C-alpha cells in the first residue's frame, strides 16, 4: 500500500515538474509575443503621423510643382496603399502576409517620397516656403522615429523567433500555435530609380 | 501615520495574513477530510448507505489517522504547489498581474483623447506625490468601471484601468480613482495583495486541477469517440469523476480563500477612499465614481477569467461570490459612499449602457497658473526637516494643484519629446548637455549616437535650458515610461552613451549623479530581470559605518568650514536616535562621491523606520544653514530615489 502511494507521489511530482516547465516556456513565449505586438503599436503611431503629414506636403507643393503632376500623384497613391497595408498589419502584427505587404508598400512610399523631395529641391521658391520647410523637417524627424521604432520591433521579433525555434520550446510553440513572426524591413527603392527632373 | 510607519505596518499585516492563511488551510483540510471520510464510508464495499449518516449520528470513530495524514499531505502539497506556481507567475512584478487580466500597455505617445486624459491625470499625480510614473495598462475587454494597482515596489508599480472607466468617468472622477490607487501604492498595500494572491492561488489550485482534469478527460472522450476507441471509456469516466470531485472539494477552498481576502482587504478600502478624498480635496470625485458604478448596468464587474484571483487588487467589487456581501473583498457601495458623502440617499442614478462622459476640457491647469507660481530658491523660506519627512509619501491637495501647475509649465515641445522613446533619449542627452560644458558634450553625442539623434538633441536644448532647475528631474521622471519601450539592444546603446557622456568631462556633477541614480533604479531594473533582494537590515547597528559616511559626505558638501562641517555632522547623527553611532567626523578622503554612492546602495536595504531616521538626518544636515542650493536638492532627490521614499518636488520650500 505504502509503496503504491510512494510511486504515485513520484509520478505526481514528475508530472507537476513537467507541467511547470511547460507553463514557464508558454509564458515566456506569450511575453515575447506581447512585446513585439506592443512594439508594433509604437511604429503605428509614427507611421500614422507620417501619413498625416504627406497630404499637407502635397498640398503645399502643388502650387509650385504644376508640371510635376506624376510625382505628386505617385506620392498620394503610394501613401494610400501604405495606409491600408498598415491598417491590416495593425490588426495582426507580425503576421507574415500582412508584414510583407506593409514592407513593400512602405518601400514604395519611401521611394515616392524620395523622388518627390528630390524634385522639390529643384524649385528654390518651394524650398524657401516656410510651411514647406517646417513640414519637411517634421517629416525627417518622423522618419527617424519610424526607423527607430522599426528597429525596436525587429529586435522584438528576433527575440521571439529565436526563442520559438529553440529546443524544446519548438514543441510547445507548435502545440499552442505560436506562429513565426515576420520582420518589418524597408528596401530603399529610391536607389534603384533615378529621379526624373525636368528643367523646362 | 506617516509613510514609513505605514510601510512597517504593512509588514505586520503580512504576519496576520500568514496566520489567517494557515487557519484557512487547516479548515480546508478538515473539510476535505470530512468529505473524503464521508464518501469512502458511503461507497466502500463493506458499508451500507446509512453508514455515511452514521458518521454524524454516532460520534467520532471516523477519525482515521492514516487517512487524515494522507489528506493532510496531499492537500498541503497541492496548496504549496499552487502558491509557488503563482509566485512564479507574479515574479515579474505588477505587470504580471496586468497581463494575467488581459491588459494592454498604454502607449505614452498615444493619440486617443481618453487615453491622453488618463495619462495626464496620472502624470499630475505622479509629479505631485514624487512617486515615479507607474506603468499604465488598459483593460479593453472590460465594460465595467474598475481599476487596480499592483506591484512589489514603487519601481515596478502598475496601474490598470478598464475601458468602462475611460468612457464613463469625468476627469475629476478619474482623478479620484487614480488617487485611490496611488494611496494603495503609498500605503504598502500592493505588496500585501501580491502575497495574498499567491497564497489564495494555492487554495484555488485544488479546484483548478480538478477542472483541468475534468476538461482534459472530456476532450479525450469527444476526440476518442470519433475514432471508435470505446475501450478506455470507463477509465476516462472515472478520471472525469475524480476531476469533478476535486473541483467540488476545491470550492470549499474557494470559500475559505474568499473569506481570507475579505478579512484582509475590506478595511483598507475605506482607508484608501479617505486618503483619496484627502488628496484631491474633492469628495465628489470618488463618490461620483461609486454612484456611477451603482447605477451603471455593467457596474464594476469584470469578465476576465482570472479576475477572481485578482479581485482584491481592484477599486470596487469585480467578481461576485454567491454569498455576496459576506465574503466580498470590498465594503458595500452604499456604505462607501455614505462614508464620504453623508447626505447620500441610497439611490443610484441609472446610467445607460452606452453612457459617455462629456469631454471636459483640461482647464484645471490654466485656471491655476494665475493663483500659484513656484517661488524661486532665493525667496522661498525653507520648511523644517520634520515637515520634509511628513511630506514623504503623503498626498496633499496643495501638492496636487502644484503637480498640475508643474505639468502646465513644461513646454509642449519637451513634453512631446518625453513621451516617445526616440526623442526621450534626446531629452536626456539635452539634459546632460545643458548641465555640463556644451561643446565637448555635443560632439560626443554626434559620435556616440549618430547624426539624427544629435540633431534631435540640438533642437531640444534651448527649451531645456529655459526650464527651471526644479522641473528638470521631474520631467526626466515623466520620460521613464517611454524609455522603457526601448528594445534591450537599444537600451544598452543608450545606457552606454549616457555613461560615456557623464564620464567625458572627468568630473561628475550632482545632477549627472542623480540622473544616473534615477536610471539605475527605474530603468536598469526593468531591463535586467533580477529581482531585488528584500530588506536585509532591521537594526541600525549593522549599517552604522555606511550611515556615517553618508551623513559625513553631505556635511562636507554643505560647507567648507571645518567647524561647521563637524557641528552639522553631529547634529545629523543626533537624529539617528541611537547611542551606538560614533559622532566622530570621518576624514574627508573617505567621504567622496564614490563612497557616498556605495553607502547609499547599502542603505537601500534597511527597514522603513531606519530609512526615516536616515532621511531625517540627511534633511537636517542639508537644511542646517537655512539655505538649500540646487545641487543639494538634487542630492536629496538621489537619496530619496534610491531609498524608495517619494518626496514631492516642492516639499522643501514653503509656497507663499
Please tell me about this protein's structure.
- The complex is a heterodimer of chains A (200) and B (656).
- Chain A has helices at 2-62, 69-91, 96-121, 124-128, 130-165, 169-175.
- Chain A has 200 residues and is an all-alpha fold.
- Chain A has a single domain, classed as LemA-like domain (de novo design (two linked rop proteins)), CATH 1.20.1440.
- In chain A, helix 1 packs antiparallel against helix 2 (69-91), helix 1 runs antiparallel to helix 5 (130-165) and helix 2 packs antiparallel against helix 3 (96-121).
- The radius of gyration of chain A is 25 Å and the shape is rod-shaped.
- By secondary structure, chain B is mainly α.
- Chain B has 4 domains: 3-40 and 70-93 and 193-280, no CATH class; 96-190 and 284-340, Metalloproteases ("zincins"), catalytic domain (Zincin-like), CATH 3.30.2010.10; 410-527, no CATH class; 535-643.
- Chain B is 65% helix and 2% strand.
- Chain B has a 4-stranded mixed beta sheet with strand order 1-2-4-3, with helices on both faces.
- In chain B, strand 3 and strand 4 (158-162) form a beta hairpin.
- In chain B, helix 5 (113-129) crosses helix 7 (171-186) and helix 8 (189-227) packs antiparallel against helix 9 (233-280).
- The longest helix of chain B has 48 residues, at 233-280.
- Chain B is globular.
- The relative contact order of chain B is 0.10.
- The A-B interface holds A 5, 12, 16, 20, 23-24, 27, 30-31, 34, 38-39, 41-42, 45, 48, 141, 144-145, 148-149, 151-152, 155-156, 159 and B 70, 77, 81, 85, 88-89, 92, 99, 104-105, 107, 109-111, 420-423, 452-453, 456, 485-490.
Amino acid at each position: 500500500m505504502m509503496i503504491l502511494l510512494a510511486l504515485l507521489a513520484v509520478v505526481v511530482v514528475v508530472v507537476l515538474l513537467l507541467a511547470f516547465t511547460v507553463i514557464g516556456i508558454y509564458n515566456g513565449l506569450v511575453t515575447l509575443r506581447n512585446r513585439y505586438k506592443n512594439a508594433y503599436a509604437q511604429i503605428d503611431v509614427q507611421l500614422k503621423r507620417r501619413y498625416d503629414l504627406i497630404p499637407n506636403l502635397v498640398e503645399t507643393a502643388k502650387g509650385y510643382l504644376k508640371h510635376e503632376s506624376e510625382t505628386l500623384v505617385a506620392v498620394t497613391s503610394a501613401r494610400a496603399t501604405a495606409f491600408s497595408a498598415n491598417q491590416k498589419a495593425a490588426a495582426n502584427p507580425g503576421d507574415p502576409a500582412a508584414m510583407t505587404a506593409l514592407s513593400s508598400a512602405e518601400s514604395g512610399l519611401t521611394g515616392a517620397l524620395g523622388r518627390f523631395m528630390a524634385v522639390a529641391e529643384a524649385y528654390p521658391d518651394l524650398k524657401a516656403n516656410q510651411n514647406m520647410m517646417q513640414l519637411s523637417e517634421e517629416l525627417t524627424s518622423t522618419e527617424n522615429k519610424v526607423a527607430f521604432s522599426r528597429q525596436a520591433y525587429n529586435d522584438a521579433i528576433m527575440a521571439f523567433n529565436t526563442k520559438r525555434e529553440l529546443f524544446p520550446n519548438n514543441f510547445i510553440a507548435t502545440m499552442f500555435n505560436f506562429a513565426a513572426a515576420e520582420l518589418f524591413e524597408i528596401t530603399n527603392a529610391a536607389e534603384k530609380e533615378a529621379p526624373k527632373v525636368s528643367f523646362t | 501615520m506617516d509613510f514609513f510607519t505605514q510601510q512597517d505596518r504593512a509588514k505586520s499585516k503580512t504576519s496576520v495574513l500568514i496566520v489567517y492563511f494557515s487557519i484557512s488551510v487547516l479548515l480546508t483540510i478538515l473539510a476535505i477530510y470530512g468529505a473524503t471520510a464521508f464518501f469512502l464510508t458511503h461507497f466502500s464495499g463493506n458499508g451500507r448507505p446509512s453508514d455515511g449518516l452514521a458518521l454524524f449520528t454516532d460520534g467520532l470513530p471516523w477519525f482515521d489517522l492514516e487517512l487524515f495524514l494522507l489528506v493532510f499531505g496531499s492537500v498541503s502539497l497541492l496548496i504549496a504547489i499552487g502558491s509557488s506556481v503563482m509566485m512564479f507567475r507574479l515574479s515579474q512584478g505588477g505587470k504580471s498581474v496586468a497581463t494575467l487580466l488581459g491588459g494592454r500597455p498604454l502607449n505614452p505617445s498615444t493619440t486617443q483623447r481618453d487615453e491622453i486624459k488618463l495619462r495626464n491625470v496620472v502624470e499630475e499625480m505622479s509629479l505631485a506625490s514624487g512617486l515615479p510614473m507607474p506603468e499604465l495598462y488598459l483593460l479593453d475587454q472590460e465594460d465595467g468601471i474598475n481599476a487596480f494597482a499592483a506591484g512589489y515596489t514603487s519601481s515596478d508599480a502598475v496601474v490598470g484601468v478598464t475601458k468602462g472607466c475611460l468612457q464613463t468617468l469625468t476627469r475629476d472622477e478619474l482623478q479620484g480613482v487614480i488617487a485611490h490607487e496611488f494611496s494603495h501604492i503609498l500605503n504598502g498595500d500592493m505588496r500585501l495583495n501580491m502575497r495574498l494572491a499567491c497564497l489564495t492561488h494555492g487554495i484555488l489550485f485544488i479546484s483548478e486541477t480538478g477542472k483541468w482534469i475534468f476538461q482534459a478527460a472530456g476532450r479525450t472522450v469527444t476526440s476518442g469517440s470519433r475514432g471508435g476507441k470505446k475501450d478506455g471509456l470507463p477509465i476516462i469516466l472515472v478520471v472525469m469523476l475524480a476531476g469533478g470531485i476535486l473541483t467540488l472539494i476545491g470550492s470549499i477552498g474557494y470559500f475559505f480563500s474568499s473569506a481570507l481576502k475579505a478579512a484582509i482587504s475590506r478595511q483598507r478600502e475605506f482607508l484608501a477612499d479617505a486618503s483619496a478624498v484627502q488628496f484631491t480635496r474633492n469628495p465628489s470625485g470618488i463618490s461620483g465614481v461609486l454612484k456611477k458604478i451603482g447605477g451603471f448596468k455593467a457596474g464594476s464587474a469584470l469578465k476576465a477569467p482570472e479576475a477572481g484571483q485578482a479581485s482584491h487588487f481592484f477599486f470596487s467589487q469585480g467578481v461576485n461570490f454567491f454569498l455576496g456581501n459576506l465574503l466580498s473583498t470590498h465594503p458595500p457601495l452604499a456604505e462607501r459612499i455614505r462614508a464620504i458623502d453623508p447626505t447620500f440617499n441610497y439611490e443610484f442614478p441609472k446610467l445607460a449602457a452606452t453612457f459617455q462622459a462629456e469631454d471636459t476640457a483640461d482647464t484645471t491647469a490654466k485656471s491655476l497658473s494665475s493663483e500659484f507660481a513656484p517661488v524661486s530658491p532665493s525667496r522661498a523660506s525653507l520648511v523644517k526637516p520634520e515637515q520634509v519627512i511628513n511630506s514623504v509619501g503623503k498626498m496633499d491637495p496643495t501638492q496636487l494643484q502644484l503637480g498640475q501647475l508643474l505639468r502646465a509649465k513644461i513646454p509642449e515641445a519637451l513634453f512631446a519629446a518625453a513621451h516617445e522613446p526616440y526623442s526621450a533619449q534626446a531629452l536626456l542627452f539635452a539634459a546632460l548637455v545643458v548641465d555640463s560644458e556644451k561643446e565637448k558634450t555635443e560632439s560626443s553625442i554626434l559620435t556616440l549616437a549618430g547624426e539624427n539623434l544629435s540633431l534631435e538633441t540640438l533642437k531640444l536644448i534651448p527649451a531645456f535650458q529655459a526650464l527651471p532647475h526644479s522641473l528638470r528631474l521631474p520631467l526626466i521622471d515623466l520620460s521613464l515610461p517611454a524609455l522603457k519601450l526601448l528594445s534591450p539592444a537599444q537600451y544598452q546603446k543608450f545606457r552606454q552613451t549616457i555613461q560615456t557622456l557623464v564620464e567625458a568631462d572627468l568630473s561628475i556633477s550632482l545632477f549627472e549623479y542623480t540622473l544616473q541614480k534615477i536610471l539605475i533604479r527605474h530603468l536598469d531594473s526593468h531591463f535586467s530581470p533580477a529581482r531585488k533582494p528584500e530588506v536585509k537590515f532591521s537594526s541600525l547597528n549593522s549599517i552604522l559605518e555606511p550611515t556615517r559616511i553618508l551623513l559625513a559626505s553631505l556635511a562636507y558638501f554643505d560647507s567648507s568650514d571645518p567647524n561647521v562641517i563637524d557641528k552639522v555632522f553631529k547634529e545629523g547623527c543626533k537624529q539617528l536616535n541611537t547611542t551606538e553611532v560614533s559622532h566622530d567626523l570621518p576624514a574627508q578622503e573617505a567621504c567622496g562621491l564614490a563612497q557616498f554612492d556605495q553607502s547609499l546602495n547599502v542603505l537601500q536595504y534597511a527597514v522603513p523606520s531606519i530609512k526615516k531616521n536616515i532621511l531625517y538626518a540627511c534633511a537636517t544636515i542639508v537644511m542646517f544653514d537655512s539655505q538649500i542650493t540646487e545641487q543639494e536638492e538634487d542630492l536629496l532627490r538621489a537619496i530619496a530615489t534610491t531609498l524608495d521614499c517619494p518626496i514631492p518636488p516642492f516639499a522643501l520650500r514653503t509656497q507663499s
